[in-house]
């Protein structure tokens, strides 16, 4: 059973060794080894069903049938075995918009570690929440219910919550999916700003042009690593073809597989 471990190498924010992730005993990610460097901006790309969301969710600490190790740098390693300063944004479809909660409370939740459970939102947190809402273009939205927001506005709110979290590692699952161009551009600006601030950002993306233009590192995944490193070297026609071909032969009912640990794969 894998667990997060403190790392010796501080230039890596996350180091993965021979990681296999599975649902009901059927592997969705196989024998993944490599590292995300501290301060790197990495896109995870690959065909549908490649295991991208599964990997991101495992990095966030939501384990699913897991073998191998995910290790975080000791500087940000909490007692619970995951970084105390890690933020994870799942796909928006995973969020229940019917829940009667106001924008301010969603954003303030980003500060729950400072706030503590069941404590009222302080004046300072309210002021910070208004600031981060302004930073994502939502001045005056504090008292709106999330069910009243457009998809783009809700994504801005969720980015405001990430800003509130002030995390060192930020995991984003298809953050620009189904957004209008203006919102996608604005939120990409937030991501690039995190990168300038030397935070480690990992995003599952489908838009390869965006990846080529803005994401220096890429992990091309097709349940196993096809390539991992500089985006220009990873996103070659040969590698993309290999990822597509690998996808054609997937068997979702395949049993657990066994392979000796590798040392060769590299990452960011
Ligand atoms: N909760 C689950 N229970 C069982 N199987 C799952 C579950 N979630 C994902 N899977 C399976 O794991 C595999 C990888 O899924 P995952 O969602 O990680 O892929 P992905 O690369 O993010 O795909 P997409 O680009 O379509 O979002 C798929 O075969 C999927 O059907």
Compact description:
This protein is an alpha/beta fold and 268 residues long. Helix content is 32%, strand content 25%. Bound molecules: adenosine-5'-triphosphate (ATP).
Give the low-confidence spans: 1-9, 263-268
List the total number of helices.
Answer: 9
Which hetero ligands occur in this complex? adenosine-5'-triphosphate
Question: Main sheet: which strands, in order across?
Answer: 6-7-8-4-9-10
> Measured on Cα atoms, how large is the radius of gyration?
19 Å
Shape: globular
**Strand pairing plus helix content: what structural class?**
alpha/beta
Biggest sheet features: 6 strands, mixed
Number of strands: 10
Return the string of H and E elements: EEEEHEEHHHHEHEHEEHH
Share of β-strand residues: 15-25%
Overall mean pLDDT stands at 85
- The share of residues in helices is 25-40%
- Our measurement of the CA-to-CA distance between the termini, rounded to an integer number of angstroms, reads 25 Å
Protein described:
The chain has 268 residues and is an alpha/beta fold. Helices cover 32% and strands 25% of the residues. It has nine helices and ten strands. The strands form two sheets. It has a six-stranded mixed beta sheet, with helices on both faces. A hairpin with a 2-residue loop joins strand 2 and strand 3 (26-37). Helix 4 packs across helix 5 (151-165) and helix 5 packs parallel to helix 6. The structure holds adenosine-5'-triphosphate. Adenosine-5'-triphosphate (ATP) is lined by residues 23, 28, 46, 48-54, 252. Adenosine-5'-triphosphate binds at residues 23, 28, 46, 48-54, 252.
């Amino acid at each position: 059973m894998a667990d997060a471990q403190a790392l010796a190498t501080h230039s890596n924010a996350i180091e993965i060794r021979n990681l296999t992730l599975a649902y009901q005993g059927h592997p969705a990610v196989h024998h993944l080894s490599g590292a995300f460097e501290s301060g790197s901006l990495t896109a995870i790309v690959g065909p549908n069903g490649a295991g991208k969301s599964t990997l991101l969710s495992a990095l966030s600490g939501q384990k699913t049938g897991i073998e191998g190790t995910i290790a975080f740098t000791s500087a940000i390693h909490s007692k619970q075995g995951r970084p105390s300063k890690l933020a994870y944004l799942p796909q928006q479809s995973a969020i229940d918009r019917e829940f009667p909660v106001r924008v301010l409370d969603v954003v303030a939740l980003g500060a729950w570690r400072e706030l503590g459970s069941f404590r009222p939102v302080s004046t300072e947190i309210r002021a910070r929440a208004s600031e981060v809402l302004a930073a994502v273009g939502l001045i005056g939205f504090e008292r709106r219910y999330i069910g009243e927001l457009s998809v783009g506005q809700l994504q801005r709110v969720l980015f405001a919550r990430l800003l509130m979290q002030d995390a060192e590692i930020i995991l984003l699952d298809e953050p620009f999916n189904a957004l209008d161009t203006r919102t996608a551009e604005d939120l990409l600006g937030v991501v690039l700003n995190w990168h300038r601030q030397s935070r480690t950002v990992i995003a599952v993306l489908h838009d390869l042009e965006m990846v080529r233009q803005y994401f220096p590192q890429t992990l091309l995944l097709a349940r196993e690593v096809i390539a991992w490193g500089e985006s220009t070297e990873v996103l070659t026609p040969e590698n993309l073809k290999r990822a597509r071909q690998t996808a054609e032969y997937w068997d979702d009912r395949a049993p657990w597989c066994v392979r000796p640990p590798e040392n060769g794969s590299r990452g960011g």
